[in-house]
Amino acid sequence: MRKLALALALILLIPTPAYADPVGGTGWTLAFNDDFNGTAVDTAKWNFRTDVKGFSAQRPENVTVSGGLMSINLKQESFGGKSFTGGGLISKQGLRYGYYETRAKLNDGVGWHTSFWAMAGDGSTTFGPERRTEIDGFEIDSKSSPTALNTIHSGVHAWNGATDVHNVGTTYNSGLDLRQWHTYGFEWSETSVKFYVDGVLKHTAAYTPTQWTHDHINIWLTSIGYGTSPDPAFLPTSVQFDYIKFWQKDYYVDNDGPGAYGYSETGTWFDSTLTGWTVNSPTRYAQCHSAGHTATWRPNLAQAGNYQVFVHKIVHSGSDTNARYDIAGTTTYVNGTAGTTGWVSLGTHALAAGTASSVKLTSSGSGCARADAVKFVRV
């Protein structure tokens, strides 16, 4: 009986595994993760949150890794002109569409704002000039009453500098004790963000690239003193994270920014004033009325499979009327002066893993060939 009781106790102490595929479907690949199984923060993957905001200053020393968990230690101490300190981690890698998931356990005591969220930045400030998209997987304000610690906020912001130009989300009573372990996830696709708790869809927020800029975002796991001054009676304490995972299925290759890792040109190309598939994204055009200039988009596919491939066509009176696109031995001609601006299918193709596959645009000399983005959608 004693051995059985010990075994049960150990089982209760071990965090349960992640939901393998709460969003359904096939073709998902784990593209970024940290199980926090080491003895220190993996600084090849993470920056520390170091800003001073609200009621706390954030310190790298407050973030520890031990026993398969990452802990953000919350303290009453004088630092950076504040009486309390928090902290957090920000992924160095910028990510875009896919499914993001973590497992977290919140603290008791008022005054701490804990978040699993994503936005471009390095942790030194939350007002960086590079931010555009902000996705809040969860924002939770701690409470001194355990029965009150059940409110979750999830949502999406679009930033134009310091101006919040788009703010959609939901705040709700989860009915859960958030001091216990729960799994939180969000799936970001081209048209929306879906928010999950313990594998259950809780909210869907529309978020389209024709209205708002969809940039690459860094993952933030943080806790700061915010809203109400923290209660020293509950300090020191900690917020804990079991893991962070990001699964990817579709691949977008742009002509600029982090998404341009597989983009190349030959011949003569120029920057265009015409915007691309997501607001404010630049495009390129080849020397007009001149044939043979090429642009190539080469994804790095984690899995072999069938992908429907799309090129973003920019309709303009001066565009190439007979631009040639080649992929996997198939040729498609696209008239850039007809129809509407948007994604044009180049068909579904069986593509190998890695960088062997590509879409190649060749200008015909009839107008100006235009290069923006190509997407590979797993089917």
From TrEMBL:
PROSITE patterns: GH16_2. It comes from the Bacteria. Residues 1-20 form the signal peptide. The keyword Signal applies. Keywords: Signal. One of its GO terms (molecular function) is hydrolase activity, hydrolyzing O-glycosyl compounds. Residues 9-252 form the GH16 domain. InterPro entries: Beta-glucanase-like, CBD-like_Golvesin-Xly, ConA-like_dom_sf, Glycosyl_Hydrlase_16. GO terms for biological process: carbohydrate metabolic process. It holds the Pfam family Golvesin_C. Belongs to the glycosyl hydrolase 16 family. This is GH16 domain-containing protein. The lineage of its organism: Bacteria, Bacillati, Actinomycetota, Actinomycetes, Micromonosporales.
